[in-house]
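R.M. (postdoc): so does anyone remember the format we settled on? I'll just put the structure tokens first.
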């Protein structure tokens, strides 16, 4: 029996914190690289240490953000007013309001009704069942910005219920009966649905802000239109592809349909609050798609949808104030946006672009940019956070792509869609991955193998069909 040394575990928590501070101090003491101002170097050091802290997590993300603000202001790299400029960013508030609206699905039970409906409709066979869960995820994605909430909170409980019903259990030889296939397919599907809408996951508004900072306007409708064709194609192919490379032992699932119909019956008739929730979502989509023509900004559309839910009593303000995930996201999002903005303002991104551009001298963008995009994609093996990856690398790679002559919207679409698709690589590469992997239906070797193979399929689809679709639309 191993004895626990009192205070030993507690003291270990400080090791990552001390490591981050040590890196920061060493970086601060080093001279700025040639061509970069001292102020630019110092904001880069603060930014890099912040990203490092978000990856190894010595503190909660909100706490890391606050420490970064304190250091930046007290060292006079930025002023107090500049530090809190990000808190007025409209895209930041979009994320908060969207997370509030997402709670309406849970409160009304509309999310479960949608999931059970498509399970009952398509769940006769295992492959059909995976498509039913896919349609559920797709319908929820535009108005539910929590990828964990969709995959781990809504879809996975249904997956687990079906797997248990067929005596398929995690950490057991029975896992491959059906549980393994459904789990990994649900995960890879949510990676794609997150790619398709600006409001489908928390990192997407970050990408939008960083793109706008590069003076390239990107609207909700433009994002959705660009993603619709390659996205639907990926959603049609990936479940079938996984079915071929990681087939379930059970191919027929009539019990899943029976159970889903029983659950729908138990839910009863559609409640008026569900109708209001459905109306609010449709209203949101209309305002997001036709916002420019109607003169309604994206964040204002979210406020209108939220106001409908509050006025009709579907949501209560007191319950929204208690959603700590929304406020946590708000704090770290504001700080990251602020730091990323000053990387541009202090010339750090220009320095990076000029420094790296020389390595691609004489190489046409049609050859250089694909290399950059693949480096950007597969470097996600070193990240446990899409937001950290996006914030640290997207502006630099976008700037470099543009400097090489890549058409602006082509560079933007490839990089923002890759910023979601790389989330399927590992068991730590996207927020719900550790949760779904941890239940034990899929071993690490299969999870990584499937992640890599599906990444190849997705890259092929989005860089061929996607590119042709964007050309057809006149985006480049």
């Amino acid at each position: 029996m191993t004895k626990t040394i009192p205070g030993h575990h507690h003291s270990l928590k400080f090791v990552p914190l001390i490591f981050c501070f040590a890196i920061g101090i060493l970086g601060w003491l080093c001279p700025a690289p040639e061509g970069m101002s001292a102020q630019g170097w110092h904001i880069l050091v603060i930014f890099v240490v912040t990203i490092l802290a978000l990856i190894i997590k010595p503190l909660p993300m909100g706490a890391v953000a606050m420490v970064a603000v304190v250091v930046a202001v007290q060292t006079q790299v930025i002023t107090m007013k500049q530090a809190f400029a990000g808190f007025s960013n409209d895209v930041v508030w979009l994320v908060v309001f969207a997370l509030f609206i997402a709670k309406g699905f849970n409160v009304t039970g509309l999310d479960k009704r949608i999931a059970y409906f498509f399970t009952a409709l398509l769940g006769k066979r295992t492959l059909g069942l995976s498509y039913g869960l896919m349609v559920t995820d797709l319908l929820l994605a535009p108005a539910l910005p929590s990828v964990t909430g969709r995959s781990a909170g809504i879809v996975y409980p249904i997956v687990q219920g079906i797997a248990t019903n067929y005596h398929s259990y995690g950490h057991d030889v029975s896992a491959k009966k059906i549980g393994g296939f459904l789990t990994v397919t649900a995960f890879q599907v949510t990676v794609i649905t997150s790619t398709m809408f600006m409001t489908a996951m928390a990192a997407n508004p970050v990408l939008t802000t960083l793109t706008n900072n590069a003076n390239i306007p990107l609207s909700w409708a433009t994002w959705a239109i660009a993603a619709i064709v390659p996205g639907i194609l990926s959603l049609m192919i990936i479940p079938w592809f996984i079915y071929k490379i990681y087939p379930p032992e059970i191919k027929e699932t009539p019990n899943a349909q029976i159970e889903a119909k029983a659950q729908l019956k138990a839910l009863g008739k559609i409640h008026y609050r569900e109708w209001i929730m459905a109306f609010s979502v449709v209203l949101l989509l209309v305002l997001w798609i036709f916002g420019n023509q109607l003169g309604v900004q994206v964040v204002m559309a979210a406020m209108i949808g939220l106001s409908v839910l509050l006025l009709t009593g579907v949501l209560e303000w007191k319950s929204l104030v208690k959603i700590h995930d929304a406020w946590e996201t708000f704090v770290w999002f504001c700080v990251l946006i602020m730091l990323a903005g000053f990387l541009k303002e202090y010339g750090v991104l220009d320095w990076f672009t000029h420094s790296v551009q020389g390595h691609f001298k004489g190489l046409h963008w049609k050859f250089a940019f694909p290399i950059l995009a693949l480096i950007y994609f597969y470097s996600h093996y070193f990240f446990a956070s899409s937001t950290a990856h996006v914030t640290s690398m997207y502006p630099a790679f976008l700037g470099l792509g543009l400097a090489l002559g890549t058409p602006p919207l082509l560079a933007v679409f490839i990089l923002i869609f890759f910023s979601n698709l790389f989330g399927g690589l590992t068991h730590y590469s996207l927020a719900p991955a550790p949760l779904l992997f941890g239940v034990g239906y899929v071993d690490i070797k299969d999870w990584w193998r499937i992640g890599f193979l599906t990444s190849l399929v997705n890259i092929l689809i989005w860089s061929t069909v996607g590119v042709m679709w964007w050309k057809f639309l006149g985006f480049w």
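R.M.: ...and that's the designed sequence above, right after the tokens. Also worth knowing: The chain has 24 helices and no strands. The radius of gyration is 23 Å.
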